[in-house]
Amino acid sequence: MSGFNTRAIHVGSEPDPVTGAVNPPVYLTSTYAQDGVGVLRFSDYSRVGNPTRAALESCLASLEEARYGVAFASGLAGEDALLRTLAPGDHVILGNDAYGGTYRLLTRVFGEWGVTVTCVDLSDLAAARAAFGPSTKMLWVETPSNPLLNIVSISALSAIAREHGALLVVDNTFATPYLQRPLTLGADVVIHSTTKYVGGHSDVVGGFVATNSDDLATKLKFHQYAIGAVPGPLDCYLLLRGLKTLGIRMERHCSNARAIVNYLSTHDAVEKVYYPGLSDHPGHEIAVAQMSDFGGMVSFTLKGGAEAARRVCESTSIFILAESLGGVESLIELPAVMTHASTAGSTLYPPVNLVRLSVGIEDVDDLIRDLAQAMS
Ligand SMILES: Cc1ncc(COP(=O)(O)O)c(C=O)c1O
After folding, report:
1. Could you report the per-residue pLDDT of 308-364, keeping only the tens digit for each?
2. Which residues surround ligand 1 with Cβ inside 6 Å?
3. What pLDDT digit, counting tens, does each position of 201-223 carry?
4. How far, in Å, are 24, 40, 173, 241, 293 from residue 179 at the CA level?
5. 8 A C-beta contact, residue 66 and residue 212
């Protein structure tokens, strides 16, 4: 297999066989001429199949070292398609600091349908094992997690899930396949909000599910066209274009994040920095073993409480106050009242004085100066 960056640039982007165009065309079509009734060249309809979507699926599947990849209109649409493989009465174990929208989907949509959820600290393997019951079908993991950047062991959890006949699902949005490939570590399914690092430019919303299982891939492809939450060809093109620079962007996200962590770690106003690259982070050793670097997300709490955290978020000028993450531009936010507000009252609710940074790829000295003036 060729290297990551070579595959990111070439898989699915072979020159157009008719014209030689280095970038294959974006197939803006809803339907296809048939050579006879039911005699198809590629597909019958773009919800069922579109060549630009197929190109994205083959490229990202290759980067995740997956046999199958299925693209969706958003990360949550992908999660929805995956969760629809469950039946009423089934049980899911979710890491206790998962993305709030995943928790909302599981409890308020699938909960109504009879799926039950238990949130557990999955860094505690005994607690993970104890959460299984006879109807547990999925163990759902984010590593690094959002927003506390906790790390859990994919290989250890995959062994536990397997013992209980459940699937291990890993949300790889934060790490990206450049830093971590969960299927090679024992996961059964990888999901992505491609809205984030895969797109990389904060200009598209998308989702992706990858697996090596024939059976699961068949069900996911069925849900893709039967439910219809498909990304359009222009969105797929933007994601495919984003993938070509994923590796080089991630290197810069990681090195900028490291410099910012060093700065914050010695700042008087900072109570605690959450970053898996710190040697005293409880998941540091696992992160070293399963990731090739520690990512571009950094969270920290402020000694001055929620008010101080809000003031910092409202005082930066390069860091943009906004939800989402993973784009070239740096973002800052207050999870307790923004991205994770829907988890209030649950064990997933983050500290109210926690600030989350999505460190972009700008000049890092400018980013540090911006934080310094916001925290002065
Ligand atoms: C870790 C993680 N997973 C899934 C999602 C959902 O993805 P989307 O917003 O593309 O639906 C998000 C969104 O923020 C996320 O941060």
Report:
1. 999 999 999 999 999 999 999 999 999 999 988 878 888 778 999 999 999 999 999
2. 74-76, 99, 101-102, 142, 146, 171, 173, 193, 195, 205, 207
3. 999 999 999 999 999 999 999 99
4. 28, 39, 11, 19, 6
5. yes
d(CA 183, CA 185): 5
Asked if 169 and 31 touch (Cβ cutoff 8 Å), the reply is: no
Amino acid 162 reads R
Residue 345 confidence (pLDDT):
86
Ligand 1 nearest atom to the CA of residue 339, by list position: 14
- Ligand 1 center to 180 CA (angstroms): 17
Distance 193 CA to ligand 1 centre (A): 5
Tell me, what's the pLDDT at 105? 96
Encoded tokens for 273: 């920095």
CA of 237 to the centre of ligand 1 (A): 20
Amino acid letter at 289?
A
**Domains defined for the chain, CATH in brackets:** 4-244 (3.40.640.10), 247-374 (3.90.1150.10)
Q: Which atom of ligand 1 is nearest to the CA of 324?
A: 14
* Smallest CA separation from ligand 1 atom 7, residue: 75
CA–CA separation, 256 and 51 (whole Å): 36
Catalytic residue among 171, 188, 235, 370: 171
Residue with the nearest Cα to atom 10 of ligand 1?
A: 75
92 with 117: CB under 8 angstroms? yes
What is the Cα–Cα distance from 9 to 245, expressed in whole angstroms? 8
Q: Ligand 1: which residue has its CA nearest to atom 8?
A: 75
| Catalytic member of 68, 99, 178, 237 | 99
32: CA distance to ligand 1 center in Å?
Answer: 33
3-state secondary structure (DSSP) of residue 210: strand
The DSSP element (H or E) to which 235 belongs, if any, is helix 233-244
- Give yes or no: 171 in active site: yes
pLDDT over 80 at 1, yes or no:
no
CB 197, CB 173: distance < 8 Å: yes
Locus of tokens 């000049």:
363
